[in-house]
Amino acid sequence: MLGAQPSGNSTVFVNSVALNETAFRLWNYTLYSNGTLSNGSHCFLAFGAHKPIVSGDGTVANTTSCYAPINPIEARGITGLVFGSLFALTILFSTINLRKHGRAYLPREKGWKPVGRRWPWYWTLIVAACGILSSFTAVDVDRDYIVNTSIILQCFFLTLMVPVLLACVWEAVRCWSSCHHRRLREAESSAYSANVFQNRTNFYLPLLFYAFDSLVFFMLIPRSWSFAQRQRSDMQTLESARPTALDARFKLAAVLATICLGLVIFRLAYSSRAYRAKIPMTLLVVTISIGLRIAYMLAGSWVWELSPYRREVSVGLLYGLGYTPALFILVLLNIHGYINENEDKLSIVQRALRGGELGDGLDVAMQSLQNRSRSRQNRPPAWWFRSRNPFASPSGVFKMPTASRRLPLRDTSRPVYTNRAEEQDESGYFWWQRRRREEEDARYRKPRQSANGDRAASDSTVTEGDARGIVPRLIERDSCLPPPKYQRETPSDYSQDGRLQPTSSTHSLQSPPQVVRSMLDV
Q1: How many other C-beta atoms lie within 10 A of the C-beta of residue 286?
Q2: Which of 111, 119, 398, 513 is the most buried (most CB within 10 A)?
Q3: Buried b (16+ CB within 10 A) or exposed e, 414-428
Q4: Quick one: pLDDT at residue 310?
Q5: Is 263 exposed, middle or buried (0-12, 13-18, 19+ CB in 10 A)?
Q6: Lowest mean pLDDT, pick from 170-174, 200-204, 279-283, 487-491
Q7: Going from the N-terminus, what domains does the chain have, and what CATH number goes with each?
Q8: H-type helices in 238-361, by residue range?
Q9: By the 8 A CB rule, do 189 and 181 touch?
Q10: What value, to the nearest 5°, has the Cα angle with vertex 70 and ends 64 and 76?
């Protein structure tokens, strides 16, 4: 703090400008060593080309605010623009991968919902948003003469990236583990069964991780961030900024983040062993990158010279260990997601290779039927037990037909099954083939003889009663030619007047009709 230079006529000089000392003292203005003129409510620049004028009523003219960006962009701002642009570019690929891996191509099953595959890409979008806001605000950190809100925004979003980045890596590992669990269970459903430890691990481990990750968030974010801008002088930095940046909450958050990283590593190693799958190189590199970010967080929580909240921190250290791991993780995950295929499509290909039924899930039902003695919980659907036996009662429609069931007397009006496969046929293929064979046999089948007994090869006469008397009639020999395709026999019987009358409207394909002629036609 510097006192104004008084003169004999009650004037003071501020940056070579004579001001009224009475008005200057009345409005409590003070000239500070960094070249600013302030009264506690207003702050103006008072060096170089900035020459404020204070009038008697307290009005200040020809002034520039202390928080105006007057400096050029330096290395911190330029690097922030580059990183912010790269973070913005990752949003494009994250949305593409979100649409690719979030779509469902199979019916929803319990435990395998599409939203579980979308969470990694939700977290990547949040990380990219935090990176953009934190990087772009670094421009005003360089341009502002007095440290202001810009450094608060940069430090806030840089810190917020830590719990979000941990959740992003965790969901990437969990999604990979879940995919292998699903594929292994479908491929080895008859032999694979998760033990109790594995079930408990899959249930409690995500809860444990998110509990620690939530603690990291609450230790870091809900607090006053005004300490970051209190670096306007060396004394203010030592008294306000440094003690707050190295307090117990930041240290505890760094330790909790290390525990979260340990849970990620455990999940990665355990899933690789349990599901007999090789860990992808992408996940290994991603885990190492998040480890570097947490290591920098630990170092910055104990050493002020390495803290990302310090304004004079090295630009290479800030962006190399603070932003580069996050950007590298986003790039690797997006490349990994762009190369790999959707989980449902992989399951469809795996089922097709096994020769299973993709449409109605018959393979799952058959495997469940074979293993129902081992596990009563996985029963086939109800339609699997529906019998094709036409003689089954309505109460037994959901029971499998057995050999011990006694069939009723044979009825020619109903279809007769020749084997068990034909009896259980759902598609109607065997019925259609049997019908075609009957029609072909009916064409070339030898006609049956008349119901009156064997007749001679020559024509014979039959007398029938008529209302006018005895009329001789001639019955020709049955034709040996096959009947027309759609010609059918109508069974007949004798009526009281001696004429042949049809007895049934049911057609038969067994023999052609008889041809009856009179002797007058000979």
Answers
A1: 26
A2: 119
A3: eeebeeeebbeeeee
A4: 93
A5: buried
A6: 487-491
A7: 5-61 (no CATH), 75-351 (1.20.1070), 355-385 (no CATH), 386-403+415-442 (no CATH), 460-521 (no CATH)
A8: 242-245, 248-274, 281-302, 315-318, 324-339, 343-354
A9: no
A10: 150
Residue 472: predicted pLDDT: 42
Placement of tokens 């007994």 in the chain:
453
- Side chain identity at residue 318, one-letter code: L
Q: What is the pLDDT of residue 457?
A: 42
Q: How far apart are CA 103 and CA 114, in angstroms?
A: 7
The residue written with tokens 């809860």 in the block is 207
CA 391 from chain centre, in angstroms, equals 48
As a whole number of angstroms, the distance between CA 354 and CA 189 comes to 12
Nearest Cα residue to 444 out of 515, 514, 512, 507: 512
CA–CA distance, 333 with 339 (Å, rounded to integer): 10
Residue 262 makes CB contacts below 8 A (sequence gap 6+) with none
Distance, in Å, from the CA atom of 169 to the CA atom of 235, rounded to the nearest integer, reads 41
Helices of type H across 110-148: 115-136, 138-143
| Alpha-carbon span 228 to 138, nearest angstrom | 13
Q: Which residue has the tokens 């064409």?
A: 443
Q: What is the mean pLDDT of residues 266-290?
A: 92
φ, ψ dihedrals at 14, nearest 5°: -125, 110
